[in-house]
Amino acid sequence: xxxxSRSSEGECxxxxxxxxxxxxxxxxxxxxxxxxMTDQExxxxxxxxxxxxxxxxxxHDANSPTARVGGAxxxxxxxxxxxxxxMLSVDNTYSINDFRAWHQRCVETVGDDCTIFADPKxxxxxISLRYExxxxxxxxxxxxxxxxxxxxxxxxxxxxVPLQLRAPVASAESTAIPSVLEVRGxxxxxxxxxxxxxxxxxxxxxxxFANARNSCVGTLKNKDPKVVASRRLSFVAHGRGEGEGxxxxxxxxxxxxxxxxxxxxxxxxxRAFASVDAxxxxxxxxxxxxxxxxxxxxxxVLRIDSFAQQETLGExxxxxxxxxxxKYPAEQGETTxxxxxxxxxxxxxxxxxxxxxxxxxxxxxxRHATLHNIEEIQRRxxxxxxxxxxxxxxxxxxxxxxxxxxxxxxxxxxxxLPIACPACGSAVELQGPKLYCANATCTARFRERxxxxxxxxxxxxxxxxxxxxxxxxxxxxxxTFADVFALDVAVVARTLAKGEKALQEIxxxxxxxxxxxxxxxxxxxxxxxxxxxxLAGLGIKHVGASASKTLARRYADAxxxxxxxxxxxxxxxxxxxxxxxSVAAWLASDEAxxxxxxxxxxxxxxxxxxxxxxSPGSNAFAGRTFVVTGTLTSLGRSEVTEKLERxxxxxxxxxxxxxxxxxxxxxxxxxxxxxxxxxxxxWDEARLQTELASAGSAA
Length: 699
Prior knowledge:
Elements: H1 2-30, H2 39-55, E1 80-82, E2 91-93, H3 96-110, E3 116-122, E4 125-132, E5 135-141, E6 147-149, H4 152-155, E7 180-188, H5 191-203, H6 212-220, H7 225-230, E8 234-244, H8 252-261, E9 271-273, H9 276-289, E10 297-304, H10 307-313, E11 323-327, E12 332-344, E13 349-361, E14 364-370, H11 374-380, E15 383-384, E16 387-393, E17 397-403, E18 413-414, E19 428-431, E20 434-437, H12 443-453, H13 466-474, H14 489-497, H15 501-508, H16 513-528, H17 530-537, H18 545-554, H19 558-562, H20 566-570, H21 577-587, H22 590-601, E21 625-629, H23 637-646, E22 650-652, E23 661-664, H24 670-678, E24 681-683, H25 685-694
Parallel strand pairs: 2-11, 21-22, 21-23, 23-24
Antiparallel strand pairs: 1-6, 3-9, 3-10, 4-5, 4-7, 7-8, 10-11, 12-13, 12-16, 13-14, 13-20, 15-18, 16-17, 19-20
Helix pairs in contact: 1-2, 14-16, 17-18
């Protein structure tokens, strides 16, 4: 008994020892770039720790290195969370002259003493990590910048992301762990890992992943954290969100050093430059070096280093004025144009796609490229059998740049236009440079419309990706939009099990689970999305996210909308004659009435969830321009913006003579000073809450 007790004490001590050792090893590898053990040694020690923890469940620790292997697969949708501080995206430039012009604009605003900080633009998935008192609490994808998906369980499975921050070293700006720290960064798949996974997939006869970025995004959105853990994604920090209890950092370079002291991975390639010429030299030198990196990089992010100067420069609704991304020219390659495939889009457009001899381009294998339309084919004088130059536009979409005319042999043949729809065989119509299928019920046309309808920014039916849509349409289970919300779990499960190999693999991982989750997501979408999202998804000509919101603000439900006249529609905000005519024609069609009635019959919510915009002068906000600066304790920045806009205000990123009110939270900086100089009305948080309550929109 005594011996067993000693043995148990020794095992418990060993558990604590291994946890500390493996945590240090992880930080040393990812944050400090000073590894002190091999991958094999790490994995062996991790296995030893897992075995000991199984013997001693009372010592469970959610932050143990073994916790990264992931918990149970997730059911249903990812939750959506509003960012407390918006995640902006930087503007792009491909020209050194444009970069210099951007820098000159900054100098004209903040002066010549304008240090630039540059670091690689990693090609991955933007993420926001929230730490409270040093512990990782939440991970949220960038999404649309205002809100994103909560993927905390999956991010915890990534070894590069610290679950617990270490105390800063004595030489850092502060020796205390902050009470709140939101770190923005990029989750990415290293090139070696991408190659390893594709080798395994090839060995098992599975379709290869196209590129590392798409593989990374797909992995992080997987419902099973164990899959995420197995694919060894990595992470690098590059920005900040909300923070409390941070030291008085003056610049981005200081912030990067502070993150490193906390054990958070940052790029070792980041550099600060006192002059624009030095930054240009770095841009030019880095062009040749980026191909040798173990992660995909499509450029550099360059920002004004000083936080005070960033505050002065401000931001637009989408991008900071203090930062810019320099992107390198697209990589080109030469291959053979083997044939042209004609595809039917959601609007009935028949577009040409080039099928080429495979070539490696910008880190991925390319066999297909866009040809845009008939005019482009004729302008480039492209022929079947041509040697052609291919490039990736923005290193994402491959396109045919030109034919290599001097390599023609005479065996090349003209590209012939289809005389019938390649999907349904119906007649085609030529309208300008574009071909259309004249059949409104064309299956290929409906298939593309359906993929749009169930997509994230429309009805957002989770789990209904392109392969699933194709399988369900091919099986005859979905013939109308309404069929999405009347699917039977057992029938869907059988369809997946009998489908292509990729679908069979989905079912094998959990028989019926994918089908159950899909049907549950469709049911949830039906009851919660509302009229705006339905309209945005139907593919009505000239109606996207903005126009659908405008319609839903004016018409409370689908019945009222169906009775709208063209004269009413043309008077709507941002509606011109063309949009009004298009919408009126669709509303008058049998398709519109049938679509709405069948959707209503399966429980789809066709009631508007939008609130009409307040008219100018109807409250303290309507018709006025607001700027919010500093930290608000009761509301996040995106939540404030949403409330103000709903009350009819315009929210701007910088202070000018057009600003009506500046809302100043804690630690408000140069925006507050500028407002005081210009004599602009200033509210504190208490005044904001009072005015919101008076307008009927309290927190």
